[in-house]
Design goal:
Elements: E1 8-9, E2 14-19, E3 22-27, H1 29-35, E4 38-42, E5 49-50, E6 55-61, E7 65-69, E8 74-79, H2 82-85, H3 89-92, E9 101-105, H4 117-124
Antiparallel strand pairs: 1-2, 2-3, 3-9, 4-6, 5-8, 6-7, 8-9
């Protein structure tokens, strides 16, 4: 299982890469492997300001549909349009081309509730 260092992780299996006041969000390698083949991703919250733990979209796999949760408060800036034509990018490259959204972090956004790679690895065992 791939759990890169330098990212923040939520207990809901999202990862966050902070670049200035923007964060890129996706689902972890563990989550995509548990879901199986991903066939559809829906995000209708672009331009919305959402608190942490709020649902920002859904991800549909062959065997289930799961909600996607904001790992940190912010405004959804962009949805990865590449997922519209090829949602399997999440299976193939969850930490790269398979990112889901970009958000502008709220001022003073609190990342302290997120996990390090080591702590996330312990969480998923």
């Amino acid at each position: 299982m791939n759990i890169p260092e330098g990212l923040h992780y939520s207990k809901d299996h999202e990862w966050v890469r902070v670049e200035g006041d923007v964060a890129i969000v996706g689902i972890t390698d563990f989550a995509q492997s548990e879901l199986g083949d991903i066939v559809f991703v829906e995000v209708e919250t672009v331009d919305e300001d959402l608190p942490s733990e709020e649902v920002f979209g859904t991800i549909e796999a062959v065997k289930t549909v799961s909600d996607l949760f904001m790992p940190v408060a912010g405004t959804v800036l962009e949805f990865n349009e590449g997922l519209e034509d090829n949602p399997a990018l999440i299976n193939e490259d969850p930490y790269g081309e398979g990112w889901v959204i970009k958000i502008r972090l709220d001022e003073g956004a609190d990342l302290s509730g997120l996990l390090t790679a080591e702590a996330y690895a312990q969480e998923v065992g």
